[in-house]
Design a protein that fits this description.
heterodimer; A: about 170 residues; mainly alpha; 3 domains; globular; B: about 450 residues; 2 domains
Chain lengths: ~170, ~450
């Protein structure tokens, strides 16, 4: 009972924040609403017994990435005047495409709630989200992808340096 | 396992070689490493390792596609020796990023676990987002990089959401377990599973630039340096279609009723958009971009007829397409180095300016059309044959009509090469260009002898 009240409360907060992200005129407000949305998602993680994931989510997304966002917005001095204006046709096309995806998703997931609920219930078994469990899975079953992801970071690092550095004589 | 290790260590070594006076050794080092990796793959040394444990599997399909990717990667890296390429990214970093990207491609050809598929897609793509913007100071370069990055990230989002839904429905990331689940639940429509399947289809269709997810391709191809474009249109396309086929033939064969008509529709649309779009192009690079789109449609036909022989047909088609495309881009690089632009007119009289290049380009275009003794013909023959045996007759007829349309635009470079007055004085190819051209042309001609062997192997 308690958890379903929390679930619906967090979901309402998440929806409202997500809507405000795209509806706000001011990019800074959008970014701040995005932080709210991230916190609501972190709350959902806690409800699912994924405490570690919730903490990491807050630190990485609401912390590091949002700071980056805000810095970018401020450095580029984005505001209403510099916002690109889209024609009505583009807006309409976006609305139709997004709306169709929404209809498909709602239509599909509406029917799936009853039949998969029993499978998903296993997630609630206490220890699943603890750091210890996560570490064991990560370094036993997922060791290869974990190591290979370092290539991804190395490539991104090289790219950031190469694209960002000043050339000689600049 | 050995292959992942060799390639990632090679990438790091290449980066380290920029310290001190190692810069001249970068390309030879990379080539030696890639040839070593090719030998290891060919002999099957240490490919399987307990650490792979359900994550990746180097079966015959993976080995054959890894070999193709390694050969293509080696040829592109060989082209890096040319000093003429306009790019603000130094050669060392370029070689390293290409090697990292190639590692991702090989992960995509050998995955047995959706996490490996996702990581492979990302490791393949992220270096390319950077390389697409290698002309830092040009607007076209910035546009290419940004367009590729934003649309690519969006497609990644679809892929990831699809993977999450599939996991929610089946409780596993492993392709085997997913296939077993799909077989045990033969319901006509399981919402979460089928939605996940379709979202993954969208994500991968973007990577092979199939319509209606192809909009990025012409602009990105045009804005990137030609050497990066050659990598995108060969290695990336082959890796993406290899992953596409592997996923759908191993994880979702039991759900074929749900996706085969979607793939059929996407293939038909891709064929139409690619071939009709190419007719209107004036730039050779954009022409090749649309050619790449149209060939994605032909490759999807192989996916549509999953069954005995279809993997072999896919490999032959992918090899024929990518070697011929590589020749086209080497020609473009050579013409650019000789002071020409990217338009079709820059190819004027190429046959008299450099007969070897003219002959190679002609062979490549003829192979892309599908003229009999060349590799492209066998690719089309097997792909169409398989599709017909799976009763996709209408689609094959449409594909044949579209290849006839293809003849109209592939003839234009040939006409420019041989029948128009030279656009400049004769020029020499650099050694590496001549080697790449020779090797790729040899493959296009000699692959004709390979089909039986490939079919038996796969």
């Amino acid at each position: 009972m308690m958890s379903s009240i929390l679930f619906y409360g967090l979901s309402t907060l998440l929806f409202a924040a997500a809507l405000l992200v795209i509806l706000s005129r001011n990019p800074i407000h959008s970014a701040l609403w995005l932080v709210t949305a991230f916190f609501a998602v972190a709350g959902h993680y806690v409800l699912l017994n994924a405490q570690f994931l919730a903490a990491v989510h807050v630190i990485v997304y609401a912390g590091a990435i949002m700071v980056l966002f805000l810095f970018t917005i401020m450095l580029l001095n984005l505001n209403k005047e510099t916002e690109p204006q889209h024609s009505l046709l583009v807006k309409l096309a976006g609305l139709v495409a997004g709306g169709m995806l929404l209809v498909v998703m709602v239509g599909a997931l509406r029917r799936s709630s009853a039949e998969t609920a029993s499978d998903l219930a296993t997630v609630h078994s206490g220890t699943v989200g603890l750091v210890e469990t996560l570490g064991k899975v990560l370094f036993r079953d997922f060791l290869l992808p974990f190591e290979l992801s370092s290539i991804l970071f190395l490539a991104a690092l090289v790219g950031a340096v190469v694209l960002g550095k000043k050339e000689l004589g600049e | 396992m050995s292959l992942y290790l060799i390639l990632s260590i090679l990438g790091a070594l290449v980066l380290l070689s920029s310290l001190g006076r190692g810069k001249r050794l970068v390309v030879p080092l990379a080539i030696a490493g890639l040839l070593g990796a090719l030998a290891v793959t060919g002999m099957g040394l240490g490919l399987d390792h307990p650490l792979l444990k359900g994550m990746a599997e180097f079966d015959r399909y993976a080995v054959l596609f890894s070999c193709l990717l390694l050969v293509l990667g080696t040829l592109v890296v060989l082209l890096l020796t040319n000093p003429n390429e306009r790019s603000d990214i130094p050669r060392v970093e370029m070689a390293a990023l290409l090697l990292f990207s190639l590692t991702g491609g090989i992960m995509m050809a050998s995955f047995a676990h959706l996490v490996m598929l996702f990581l492979g897609v990302e490791i393949l793509s992220i270096p390319l987002y950077i390389l697409a913007g290698a002309r830092k100071r040009e607007r076209a370069g910035n546009e290419a990089a940004l367009k590729y990055f934003i649309t690519g990230s969006f497609a990644t989002g679809f892929l990831l959401f699809g993977i999450a839904l599939i996991y929610g429905a089946t409780g596993s990331f492993s392709t085997r377990a997913i296939a077993a689940w799909a077989e045990a639940n033969p319901a006509v429509f399981t919402p979460m599973f089928h939605l996940g399947l379709l979202l993954m289809l969208v994500g991968l269709a973007f990577k092979i630039s199939a319509a209606p997810f192809h909009f990025w391709a012409p602009d990105v191809y045009e804005g990137s340096p030609s050497i990066v474009t050659s990598f995108m249109s060969t290695v990336v396309k082959v890796a993406a279609i290899a992953a596409f086929y592997r996923l759908f033939s191993e994880a979702f064969p039991a759900a074929a009723d749900a996706w085969s008509w979607v793939i059929a529709a996407v293939a038909a649309l891709t064929l139409a958009v690619g071939n009709l779009g190419a007719l209107a192009q004036r730039s050779f690079k954009r022409l090749m971009a649309y050619s790449g789109i149209s060939h994605a449609g032909f490759l999807l036909l192989a996916l549509l007829s999953v069954g005995p022989g279809s993997a072999g047909a896919l490999w032959i088609y992918a090899a024929a397409y990518s070697f011929a495309t590589l020749i086209a881009f080497v020609s473009l690089l050579a013409v650019e180095a000789a002071g020409g632009g990217e338009s079709l007119e820059a190819l004027s009289g190429l046959g008299r300016r450099n007969p070897f290049l003219g002959v190679c380009l002609t062979i490549s275009m003829l192979s892309l059309i599908g003229v009999p003794p060349l590799a492209g013909f066998f690719g089309k023959l097997f792909v169409f044959g398989n599709a017909v045996s799976q009763r996709h007759v209408v689609l094959v007829v449409f594909a044949v009509v579209m290849s006839a349309v293809g003849m109209a635009y592939y003839m234009r470079p040939i006409i420019q090469t041989w029948l128009r007055p030279p656009a400049g004085s004769p020029f020499q190819l650099s050694t590496s260009q001549a080697w790449v051209l020779g090797i790729a042309t040899a493959f296009v001609v000699l692959l004709a002898a390979a089909p039986v062997w490939v079919m038996r192997f796969l």
